[in-house]
Amino acid sequence: MTIYSLYIYDRHCACVYYQDWHRTKQPKRAGEGGGILNAVSQAVSPLATDSAAPTPSGFSSPRNTLSSTSGLVVAVGEDPVTPLPNPTEHARSNTLPFDEEAKLVYGVVLSLRNMVKKISGRDEQFTSYRTSSYRLHLYETVSGYKFIMLSDAATDGLRFILRQIYNGPFLEYVVRNPLVPMDSRSQGIDNDYFRASLDRLVRGLSVFN
Question: Using CA atoms, how far apart are residues 128 and 34, in angstroms rounded to an integer?
Fold first, then answer.
């Protein structure tokens, strides 16, 4: 069982954090003016216009061990209502800029969550969905933050892990960190302490390969 990547969105629907562990093809950097906030991830932020381009974080993606037929899980496509496509098909297509990828992931989750509420009632919660190639897991906080994790299809529900991330590293190094602007609409929440703590937590799980 393998964990691929994590996206965190704030209550304004903006992606404020991204981290991946097993991707055979790294996400394309967001374009200038593409809508991505600062401090989401150095690995996907737009390159600096001068010669002093940002140095990728040492915790962004230290391992890429999956083959292209078994583990590339990213959000691609044109219709945000359509579930994420087969990762093996994406490996042969052009990679979207990260800002478009993040919007598509959020659009898929929002569409499926609304569909579940309309069909099953307001008390029903959307927590995950599975395809033949991957599984998406969702945990939403009372303050409107959404934690979205992508894993291989054989992995059981990881909502409890997302709750651990929220109650542990997120509260400790984001919410209680006076240097991290919450709900700023212009700044993400990436910082070295949060990224390192999250990386240790995920790598310490028995489901992590």
Answer: 28
Which amino acid makes up residue 183? D
Residue range 59-101, pLDDT digits in tens? 444 433 333 333 433 333 334 444 555 554 444 356 788 888 8
Q: How far, CA to CA in Å, does 74 sit from each of 19, 104, 109, 181?
A: 12, 10, 13, 28
State which amino acid sits at residue 116: V
Q: Is residue 164's pLDDT more than 90? A: yes
Residue 24: exposure state from Cβ atoms within 10 A (0-12, 13-18, ≥19) = middle
CA atoms of 141 and 59, how far apart (whole Å): 25
Beta-sheet strands, E only, within the chain? 3-9, 15-20, 128-130, 134-140, 146-152
d(CA 199, CA 14): 22
Model pTM score? 0.74
